[in-house]
Write a structure and sequence with these properties.
The protein is an alpha/beta fold. It folds into four domains: 235 residues, Rossmann fold; 131 residues; 86 residues, Muramoyl-pentapeptide Carboxypeptidase, domain 1 (Orthogonal Bundle), CATH 1.10.101; 42 residues, no CATH class. 42% of the residues lie in helices and 15% in strands. It has 17 helices and 17 strands. The strands form six sheets. It has a six-stranded mixed beta sheet with strand order 2-1-3-7-8-9, sandwiched between helices. Strands 4-5-6 form a three-stranded antiparallel beta sheet. Helix 7 packs antiparallel against helix 8 and helix 9 runs parallel beside helix 11. It is elongated and about 185 Å long. The relative contact order is 0.05.
């Protein structure tokens, strides 16, 4: 073998090249993203934030090193469809595909739709032609191999639903977006607000949800599920527990970060202690709890069928089952009530109406029973979580009380790793809101449902306790009124509208969510029953006043003509002749006279009246 200088240099070059290759990742992941933002709606009021939110997310993904970031805003339906078609081509050879949408969205009959800026949506059926379904969005990300992530900041209060005409009376138009379970593996769908609720734009340039996304989503090495846990914590804190982001779907057991962790060169690899089975079970349980559905809990039990965390997972499954049963009972009761009302309005036969009444009553009883069962299951789950948190706190205290030299003697790399692990704890381990914040949140929700009239000041006083008692009465719950609890807060937040009836003072009437003054028409007055009553007209009284009437000649009543003088009173005697019988006048007397003496002819004489 020759010892030429060029030959001696070759091994060193190969060694350097081999080290350089070893320092690089095994393969570079291709990451693509599509950012859609609609603000300038043509037929409803424009939205101020989506354009700003889209620009912030696009800049965040570009800084994170995504290979493709296609950002578009204010698109009509045709341009949105073209953008999705072009993105499908970009995702065919990608490992990670992310689609972010900010704008209006709505749910019709359980299907979610994203609304372009040129949509009119005059009828409920127009959504099929003028909007894009969420399924169409998922199809665009389908080709990605490792992760398909769809982020929707579209749970705003939908103005189209207020003016939209229903072509079918029973077609439902939901509040916010509907819950969805992706059918494709390795797919996550993140909502800015939990299904059935609406999101807030906030007072800043960007929405609270987008600000939290830009802060946590692209942290190097941070699992995407943990990132959304931190996003949830930030949004809950920013909105005083009124908005809770939620993630649907599931991934495998390996961490899936959007941005790979940075690899730092080290001369010696410190020994890493193997994690204990209990620590692994705790980590997996917290991941499953963050996802919060049946599939996640069942996957955890398949991996950890026994132990403390397996019991907690089964309690969570019971809670989920009770909530699903309760939701089904509510829907069944609603349909039964609709059928009863329909038969009554249509004048159906008495037998049909009686059957419908019985069905509605049975459905309502089933709903109440499901409500009680759900409350019991939620209470059991809350107690179990409290015990788990206490156990974790005790373990932390024991770890902190270890000798100090154990920490000081640890290598710097190990100390840095421990700090990183502490910084990336799950959102479920973050302490909840303080008691004053919780009290204020409960008071705010009680004001929203019409049970509390005073301000939300964070003081749980007698007025607050009476308001929670009213909520228990009208909502059929049994929360302890002496303290503001998270269970009560969650239950109140589930109510979409007023629960406690509006009570107005005399002279006012309920008008929506406020009292308006009652104004009676002219000629009417407000009676004691708070109703307008017509004022009765007074009966006129006739009066004679010589000053108010013209002088008139006084007419004398005609007097009857003077007739013959009345005969004087009789003396009590009666005289009879051919002219008849009559009383003898006073001062006269009777004498008997013969015919010759002037007496009566008949009988030869008789009594005659003699007056002197």
């Amino acid at each position: 073998m020759r010892n030429s200088p060029a030959f001696l240099k070759l091994p060193g070059f190969l060694l350097a090249a081999a080290l350089l290759l070893l320092c690089q990742p095994a393969h570079a992941e291709k990451r693509v993203a599509l950012v859609l933002a609609n603000s300038a709606y043509q037929n409803v009021p424009q939205l101020p934030n989506p354009a700003n939110d889209g620009a912030l997310i696009a800049a965040t993904l570009k800084e994170a090193g995504f290979d493709v970031v296609d950002s578009r805003h204010d698109m009509p339906a045709l341009e949105m469809r073209r953008a999705l078609r072009d993105f499908t081509d970009s995702a065919r050879d990608a490992d990670i595909a992310v689609i972010y949408y900010a704008g209006h969205g709505m749910e019709v009959d359980g299907t979610n739709y994203l609304i372009p800026i040129d949509a009119k949506l005059e009828r409920d059926t127009d959504v099929y032609d003028e909007a894009l379904s969420l399924d169409r969005i998922l199809v665009a990300a389908e080709p990605a191999k490792q992760l398909r992530l769809v982020i929707l900041d579209a749970c705003r209060d939908n103005p189209f639903a207020k003016s939209m005409k229903k072509t079918v009376a029973l077609r439902s138009i939901g509040r916010g977006l509907a819950q969805i379970e992706p059918t494709s593996p390795n797919t996550l769908i993140a909502y800015s607000a939990k299904a059935g609720s609406t999101a807030m734009d906030g007072d800043a340039k960007n929405s609270p949800f987008t600000i939290a996304l830009s802060k946590h989503l692209t942290k190097p090495g941070l699992d995407v599920r943990k990132a959304f846990g931190f996003v949830r914590d930030d949004v809950l804190k920013e909105t005083a527990n009124r908005q809770e982001p939620f993630v649907y779907g599931s991934l495998g057991g390996d961490d899936v970060p959007l941005v790979p962790a940075k690899v730092l060169p080290s001369t010696s690899a410190p020994a890493v202690p193997a994690p204990s089975p209990q620590a692994e079970a705790r980590r997996d349980y917290e991941l499953a709890l963050q996802i919060g559905n049946k599939d996640a809990m069942n996957a955890f039990l398949a991996q950890h069928p026994d132990g403390f965390y397996a019991s907690l997972a089964r309690i969570q499954l019971d809670k989920i089952a009770a909530e699903e049963t309760h939701a089904a009972a509510i829907e069944k009761a609603r349909l039964a009530e609709q059928e009863r009302a329909r038969l009554a309005a249509a004048g159906a036969q008495a037998a049909q109406q009686a059957k419908a009444d019985a069905d509605a009553k049975a459905a309502e009883q089933a709903r109440i029973a499901a409500e009680k069962a759900k409350q019991v299951a939620q209470q059991q789950a809350a107690d179990a979580e409290r015990k788990r948190t206490d156990k974790a706190s005790n373990a932390t205290v024991v770890a902190d009380s270890a000798p100090a030299d154990r920490t000081t003697s640890a290598p710097p790399a190990a100390a840095q790793k421990a700090a990183d692990e502490k910084a990336t704890n799950l959102a479920s381990l973050t302490p909840g809101p303080s008691q004053p914040d919780l009290t204020k949140s409960v008071q705010t929700e009680l004001r929203r449902v019409g049970c509390l009239t005073s301000e939300a000041d964070g003081q749980w006083n007698g007025a607050s306790q009476r308001s929670l008692s009213l909520f228990n009465r009208y909502a059929g719950t049994k929360f302890d009124v002496k303290v503001a609890s998270t269970d009560a807060l969650d239950a109140i937040k589930l109510k979409p509208s007023r629960v406690c009836p509006l009570v107005c003072d005399h002279g006012f009437k309920a008008d929506g969510d406020h009292c308006s003054k009652i104004v009676c028409a002219d000629g009417s007055f407000l009676n004691d029953d708070n109703e307008c009553e017509k004022r009765r007209a007074k009966t006129p009284v006739a009066s004679r006043d010589s000053n108010d009437r013209p002088d008139r000649a006084v007419r004398e009543r005609p007097r009857p003509d003077a007739g013959p003088a009345r005969p004087q009173a009789s003396s009590g005697q009666i005289v009879c002749d051919m002219g008849g019988c009559r009383p003898v006048a006073r001062g006269c007397h009777l004498e008997y006279r013969t015919t010759a003496q002037g007496g009566p002819y008949e009988g030869g004489g008789g009594n005659v009246q003699i007056c002197r």
